Give the backbone structure.
Amino acid sequence: MRKRITAIVLTLIMITGLLSGCGEAGSGGSGGDTATGTQALADTGKVDSAIENASAVKDSSGYVYTGEAPITQEGGTLKILAQTSNYANVDISKAPIVLKVFEEAGVEADFELLDWDNYETLITPILNSADTDADIIKIPDSDPNQVYIKSGLFVPLDEFFDYMPNYTKWLSENPVEKAELTAEDGHIYYVPGLNVADDYQPCLMYNRVWMDKAGIKNPPDNLEDFVEMLRYFKDNDMNNNGDTTDEIPMSVTKEFLPYMFGPAFGLDLVSGFQADKDGKVTYAYADAENYKAYLEFLNGLYDEGLLEPDFTTIDRDTIIAQMEDDLVGVAFDFSWAMSMMYSNVLPYYDGTEKTAFVGVPPLSGTHEGFYVGRNSLAGMFGVNTASKQIELAVKFLDYASAPHCQDYYQWGIEGESYVTKADGTREYTEKGNDNDWLQAFGINPAFVLPADQSVEATDILVADWHAEINRELRQYVKDPWPDIYATSKESDTVNLYMQDIQDKANEYSVEFITGEKNLTTDFDEYIEELDSLNLDEVTEVRQAQYDRYLKALK
Ligand SMILES: [Ca+2]
């Protein structure tokens, strides 16, 4: 049994990258870390004028690329340094969708692919030493502190916008992403893929069979009703085994508690830093009113036995095992877990919503509830300044990011992975509905190309009822703290202080929830501790960044 669970989880980890931000919930919830927070916006003026002045010009062979294939009439080979598929048995360099893009572009691909699992570890020394002759390189993150940009490894793409009609059009239509991609020096260095950012985000899930048994018709969407439901689950023999004491009303890893309950108190504890409607930035974990109320609420759940005594150490394997024994009433996790990890192990799950763990709207408390989404910028590609064929590489990235190719990435090839119906809508073929086949075909090849995730491609991976629930929940998803490049001074300040601040916040949060520390007598001490760790300086950096963000958006 244990072996089977491990296999399920491994399979799920492989698709986590597609359905959700793998590892995003692992930071202890104190958020605002280097992935989302240490970044700064630059003036987009230079980029704007480069977009405005761009016009298709002849390349060195006399050919004019206008955004459609081919990108050259001379042929050639482009060396791509990127990562393997996260499906171990898929050779993404041979995938038909990937080959199709190169074939249309009129160039050959020479792939150097590093292991998906260890990509950051493997590529960082190569980037640090600039020891590569690849023309196009996938960076391991979003270069938040502009390390690679400043090393001169990558070509400022705006200087080649004459060869990038598709990308310049996309940038002018997407001001937020354009602002996020513009470095401190006013140049743009990367072409990104995009995440699904509002769909399939972490959400609350209720055991539908238990709800029916408790006579609960509408899922509780406020804290009071929610607690009533937990009490009912705790006190009754929900799983019909004759024992009223073995039910676990709610089983959630501690990383998800901030996602689950922060919004009901007006807090984005996932990002950590948040701005109010006037643009004032605060650290949610230092909010003396709302964060204190959040901790009081969780302390109440803990005292009543509605939050598991071992909530700080519980992991997914444990939760899955509890679900297999039908012990759990409420869960909170990445959306994909709903039909692919939790519902499917319930003893009575028959493939329908009625017997599943179902996603429900967020909980409201003193504030209206929401779910925290994620930023849309994903895997980024740059052109090596050492490349002997910068023009060709730039044109290829432009073509590979175009809507025409995004269509391949999301649907594959007509007649193979999908068909167009009489009414013009599309559906995946029988083969296309087989995820293993579809992965080998090269769907969503973000490992090697600037591919955008698609909701449609995600829909086919999950149960139909799950896709329907996702469509209902998307309205509750709010943007997290924006992605913006950091100045070196800002990243120095944040790197120096933030980890200690997060650690302190995490440490105290557990102590307040378990009652080891007293919210009435010890909360001031907690705030003083944060202040002594230079929270003011970090908040000042975040405020400056947010001010620039608002300015760049205007
Ligand atoms: Ca029982």
User: Anything to note?
Assistant: Residues 1-40 have pLDDT under 50 and may be disordered.
